[in-house]
What we know:
By secondary structure, this protein is an all-alpha fold. The protein has a single domain, classed as Helix Hairpins (Orthogonal Bundle). 78% of the residues lie in helices and 0% in strands. The protein is built from four helices and no strands.
Amino acid sequence: MENFVTQMQGVPLNHxxxxxxxIFAIGVTGVLIRRNVIIIMMSIELMLNAVNLxxxxxxxxxxxxxxxxxxxxxxxxxxxxVAVGLAIIIMVYRNTKSVDIESLSKLRW
Length: 109
């Protein structure tokens, strides 16, 4: 573990923060601009991965494992979100033959 910590400290923490901020901003842009449900789900996953990388970087930087524990829980949450989201996408596609968000307004009663 000591070797990994000294190896990671070769890259400054600011680089991780900037990189994760860019990835998170790309994810937010994808959620706000795109209309395809699958791409929106991928953008949400991109945001979760940016947070995971930043938590792992802070965890190693501080020498505390609590950030890595949070990463584990976020990954479990992301897996559950993907399972439920894909089930919803499949049901919407069966009803509307489209994965466009605008087609969801047709499902109202």
